[in-house]
Amino acid sequence: METDVKSVDALNLLKQDHRTVEKLFQSWTRLSDATERHQLCRQICQELTVHSQMEEQCFYPEVRTMAGLEDMVDESLREHGHVKQLCAELESMQAGDARLSTQMGELQRAVEHHVKEEEREMFPKVRETCDQQWLLSLGLAMQQQKTQLTQQVTMPGEQRIREDVRQPSRSESWR
Ligand SMILES: [Zn+2]
């Protein structure tokens, strides 16, 4: 039975992700141990990777089809590019690297900017344009996608997700 899956619409799901990452950044600033800071930094980058991919694979393609929102999607994709680059640099650093704090500060600012733009501009327009039932079914598809992506990013070594990995066709059946 799938009825006990919590129904969260697509926009609220993405907002939950934003709150999770904000909390992780707050915890990060409170840590002083170099190993713990390094670990949490990796975790933040993994969360951001999953979030970005979910938006890019499930959410933005839909938003792009809505009148007047194309430019916003392009802007968000540029921001994701910046976040990805910062994460890639962070993930190559060792615990105790002196550049970690500065880089994390920059990542936090980039993420805050992304969150503000989406929640103040893009999401309200999407909410206006879309039917609630449709947002719920998109939310469900995104939750499934998120579960898969999370397994992929947290798998060690060779099993890590490849950039070119395509969304499996069966998860497109939510439409
Ligand atoms: Zn987002």
Structure description:
This protein is an all-alpha fold and 175 residues long. It has a single domain (10-155), classed as nmb1532 protein domain like (Four Helix Bundle (Hemerythrin (Met), subunit A), Up-down Bundle), CATH 1.20.120.520. The protein contains 5 helices and no strands. The chain has helices at residues 10-30, 34-64, 70-91, 100-129, 132-154. The protein is elongated and about 50 Å long. The model is unreliable at 158-175 (pLDDT under 50). The site of zinc ion has 6 residues, from helix 1, helix 2 and helix 4.
Layout of secondary structure:
Blueprint: H1 10-30, H2 34-64, H3 70-91, H4 100-129, H5 132-154
The structure holds zinc ion.
Spans of at least 5 consecutive residues whose pLDDT stays below 50 are 158-175
CATH topology call = Four Helix Bundle (Hemerythrin (Met), subunit A)
Mean pLDDT: 87
Order of helices and strands: HHHHH
Assembly state: single chain
Bound molecules: zinc ion
The percentage helix is over 70%
Quickly count the domains.
1
Tell me the major beta sheet: none
In CATH, the architecture is Up-down Bundle
Number of strands: 0
Number of helices: 5
Structural class: mainly alpha
CATH homologous superfamily grouping: nmb1532 protein domain like
- The CATH class turns out to be Mainly Alpha
**Strand percentage:** under 5%
Instruction: Give the overall shape, derived from the CA principal axes.
Output: elongated
What is Rg? 17 Å
